[in-house]
Amino acid sequence: MDDRTKTRRLEEFRQLCRARGIPMxxxxxxxxxxVLDLDCHPNAEQVYxxxxxxxxxxSRATVYRxxxxxxxxxxxxxxxxxxxxxxYDGRTDxxxxxxxxxxxxxxxxxxxxxxxxxxxxxxxxxxxxxDFRVQLRGVCRRCRELEERR
Amino acid sequence: MDDRTKTRRLEEFRQLCRARGIPMxxxxxxxxxxVLDLDCHPNAEQVYxxxxxxxxxxSRATVYRxxxxxxxxxxxxxxxxxxxxxxYDGRTDxxxxxxxxxxxxxxxxxxxxxxxxxxxxxxxxxxxxxDFRVQLRGVCRRCRELEERR
DNA sequence: TTAAGTGCAAAAGCTTTGCGGGTAG
DNA sequence: CTACCCGCAAAGCTTTTGCACTTAA
Lengths: 150, 150
Prior knowledge:
Order of helices and strands of chain A: HHHHHEEEEHEH
Distance between the termini of chain A: 35 Å
Strand order of the largest sheet of chain A: 4-3-5
Oligomer: homodimer
Helix content of chain A: 40-55%
Mean pLDDT of chain A: 96
């Protein structure tokens, strides 16, 4: 994520904390920065292992708790993925994903035609849609190259 | 899933096994049947806990291994979800999902307009798309009712 | 017969929780 | 001050793995 956007997101965080009267700690700031920096849709362990978080000596439990708080605050979202650990996404705006079914990589994908998708009416099911993602499922470059070599 | 489709899918399984010369065991058959019966996109523990699998005294390890084999055979797919355990989907055809961001329910959703989505060209990224899903994210009926009561 | 599958139990990976001490506002 | 947060450690959930035994073809 570019620095300009990142600065804006961190300012947004500061204001949200002030508005809700919750403390803005150095730990939370570091965790948010890492998620904004990484575009690999990391799980909590990957955030925990990141140099910035390790340098700050932040505990594993705090990383897990903080990520969930950031989601509740709407500053981070959860990525939908085929694997077995919760994955976080620094982007909360409308965008889409390429999902590799071999290595479970999640790649961001922006496309105006996908954004313009007509959202179906789900009210008959009692389901309230807030947001959507198109997931293009397949095999990423790296996995394809690995398979060719064999 | 209706019985007619289920019978067809089980026959497909039998033929795939024969074609590849792999044994069709009673355990695999039971696990496949359970995934086809459930439409809740169960994780491995839920399949393990199902009456049919328990009656057959199938071990936990076999459930985990079998689910992965069925995915490799293309008889079952993995659902993309926001949570922390792999979830399986008895449907492998084109369809879409409603994702509840509160309880992480995954509901099937069929819609011809979504099916007709123009698939973007991802070849520049080296990504080969095989399939897609639209995920409508929001809050399901039950979670909305629970929140109203409070 | 035999390649593959299964059960068991241990280990590894991921996540939550209770509690005593610390800190932002 | 004081409500909230943090680190630690233990516990709980999910998944994988090695090995000896069993089974479908």
